[in-house]
Each structure stands twice: as C-alpha cells, then as structure tokens.
Amino acid sequence: MVRLGRDYTNCLVFEYLGEEEKRSIEKGELELESMSALAVVKAKRDIERQIEVTLELGMNHIELDADPLNPYLDFDGGRRREIKKAAEANDVTLSLHLPYSYVGGSVCSPQEDDRGVAVELHKRCIQFAADVGARYVVMHPGSAPPYHRHGRFHKSIHDSLLRSVIELGRFSAERGPAFHLENNTALDGIYSEIEDCLAIIKEARGQGVEIYFNFDIGHWFTRADFGKQIPDPPEKALEPIPPDYLKELHLNDYVPGEEIFHPPLHLGWGLLQRGNLERYARLVKRKGVEVVVLETALKSIEQVLGREELLKRESEYVRDIFEAAG
Asked: Which parts of the chain have pLDDT scores under 70?
C-alpha cells in the first residue's frame, strides 16, 4: 500500500500566531506571506503537532521542509532522538525537503566556492534527516540566471549539478535516507523537464550512486505557461519514468495562466480532476511507488480560517482515490 503524507507548507502556521496577529489576518490587514514570515518557524518546529494532524487526517507520512526559514539545524541530539521516537511510535514515516532557495539554490553553480557552500549546507540537512530516521531526502536541481542557461554555461551548470548529486547521493546513502532529485518549475528555467532530470540521475547511477527521481507533476504543469504541451490526460507524463527510479513522489496541482501553485486537490481548480487522479493513483501503484506527499498550500484568508475542514475534505478525497486503486 502506498503511504500518503503531507508537506504542510502554510497549512498549520495560523495556529502559531499571537492573538493580535490572528485578528490582523482575519481582517485582511496582513497577507498570507506575512503570516508565514511571522510563524512558519514555530510551525515547523512543532513536529509532534504535525504527527498529530497527520494521524487525524488518516495519513502516515510527513515531509519536513528545510527551506528557509527552518529551525532544524539548531536541534540538538536529544531533540532529534525525540522526533525519531515520536514518529516511530505513531508509525509515521518522515522525509526531508532540502533547501532550494537562497544558498540551497547554488548546488548547480559553476562557481565552485558557491557550489561547495550549498553542498555543505545540504549535508548538514541530510545528517538531520538521518538523525530523525527519515527514509527520504529530496533536492531541487538548483537555480541559474537566464544568461547562464544556454551553451557552454549550461554545460557548466550540468557538470556542477552532477558533481553535487553524486557527492550528496553518496553522503545520504551512507547515512540511510534515499536521495531524490526533483524537477524544477518551468519558471526556474532549468531542469524542469523530465528527460533533463532523468539524464542527471542516469549519469549519477552510472557512477554507482543510488539516486531516485521525485517527479512533481504540479511543477511539470508550469510548462503550459511557456508554450509547451501538456498531454491528454496530463498524468500520462508519469508513464515513461522507469519504476526503479521512483520511491517518493510529490503530488500537487497547478492552474495554468493564473500561476496558482498547489491549490487544494478536491476543489478541482487545476489540471488534476478526479478521473486524472484515479489514473495517477493506478500508475503510482503499478510502478511500486512507496510514498506520495501532498503539497497543498492555503490560498486565501477564507481557506486559512477553514483550514481544518479543508484539510479533512482533501485528505478524505485523496485517500478514497488511492484506496480504490488498491
């Protein structure tokens, strides 16, 4: 049975605001980005609460998000053991999303000093993941300015990313978590296409490194806003990916033309309607995927205030679909 879980993004942040801050959100005086700036670290810190909510939603996996802002590298050995014990006691498995913005985006930098700093940051995060018993870690392929995305510059970026993936893949394998490369969005301009990510993974595997592909279908849908085709049905994009490249997948949707990322799946705003998700679930099962992580984000004050019911309904919707797939 495929495990279902969540990366809670901004879904629990409201709980950690002060009373005046909550009233400001309710009145529309603060936008959702400010809500996260004020309390996302507190929400990320309370992993026991994430476990509690996950169990209430009938799921059994959590992906912790180490992108800034996050508190995880400050956790001492005792706190890390507490997290591992709490997850194991509740049969909740863990994964860690490695940093992908700021320093984390330099894993593909052709400037070796920059790349080295990013890799060392990722290693510290992978060690945290291993210490809390995480089964998987996930890395974005990095970022580059538009004028570095072509010709010889792109070759340098490719070579740098490959070095990072090999180094981090080996580091992670020695400590336990399965290392994943995830596709960027088309807005990032590099490594948003499936074949580009698979090429890196294939090269790394050719050097004896155990690497997997975390295909983020919502990220891939962003190609529609750059004049590229989405197949009909859109979940067909998953079909050509070799099963032995897959362990964890990210599941989220996208609304082309409006740049709406990660809307609640049960609302049907994007390309993944129920029939699409049913076929997606069957594909996931056939390919032997171990865990699917929902990355829903709240999009309005109304959704923030109704977050408990929204998460409940979306979770039931997705669980029903995956249970029917077997």
From this structure: none
Tokens matching residue 87: 């997850």
Assigned token pair, 56: 């209430």
CB 97 within 8 A of CB 7: yes
Whichever domain contains 19, its CATH number is 3.20.20.150
Q: Which of 61, 152, 163 is nearest to 106 (CA)?
A: 163
Per DSSP, the three-state class of 66 is coil
Helix (H, G, I), strand (E, B) or coil at 238: helix
pLDDT at residue number 3 = 98
DSSP 258-291: TTEES--GGGT-SS--HHHHHHHHHHHHHTT--E
What would the pLDDT profile of 235-257 be if each residue is shown by its tens digit?
A: 999 999 999 999 999 999 999 99
Please report, for residues 65, 83, 100, 192, 225, the alpha-carbon distance to residue 125 in angstroms, rounded to integers and kept in the order given: 10, 15, 12, 23, 33
Predicted pLDDT of residue 326 = 80
What residue numbers bound the domain in which 308 lies? 3-325
Domain total of the chain: 1
The number of CA neighbours under 13 Å toward the Cβ of 228 is: 12
Exposure letters 13-24 (e unless 16+ CB within 10 A, then b): bbebbeeebbeb
Check: pTM over 0.70? Answer yes or no: yes
DSSP state of 82: H
**Each residue of 111-122: pLDDT tens digit?**
999 999 999 999
Q: Give the DSSP letter string of 148-199.
A: GSSHHHHHHHHHHHHHHHHHHHHHHHHHSPEEEEEPPPGGG-SS-SHHHHHH
Gap between the Cα atoms of 247 and 135, Å rounded:
10
